[in-house]
Amino acid sequence: MTGPELIAAFLSDGSLLGLRPGSAVAEADRALAVDFVEEGGPGGALRRDYGLVELYFAGEPDRVLTGGSLELHRLPGDPALAAEWSAATGVDFAPYTAWSEVAGALAAAGLAEGDLERTTQGDYLEYRNPDIKVSVFVVDGEDGRDGWPGHGDLWSVSLG
Fold this sequence. Notes:
Blueprint: H1 3-13, H2 25-31, E1 37-40, E2 46-49, E3 53-58, E4 64-70, H3 79-89, H4 99-105, E5 117-121, E6 124-129, E7 134-139, E8 154-159
Antiparallel strand pairs: 1-2, 2-3, 3-4, 4-8, 5-6, 6-7, 7-8
């Protein structure tokens, strides 16, 4: 699977590699067989940074997924990150992902670009599926690619 295909599916069904709000921490361990950094917070809050993905859990005694983000802006500066994720998940990410690539993959995921809410958030366009609370943030500034995503490239994808 390609990165744009994964993102289109995420926008369509709210599931990232089988993880969705309410998933247990153990499910994340099975779905994401990569190293992570973990930070605990008040009230049983937990943040896990898997490099390309950040997940947020809450609840006691059994924590469940409450949100997360796919941090695509990290890929250009860390080529090994894409290789690690491909080996662990079978998803191939390029250093940059253009919105046009994701938009082209939406139909196969059962979604049309017109189904998404589009708003401007400063130098970003937000494409949001309000039914499942997944948003894609696309660089809308004038800058081209320069080690960071440029105009028309995805910055991140957020759940929540």
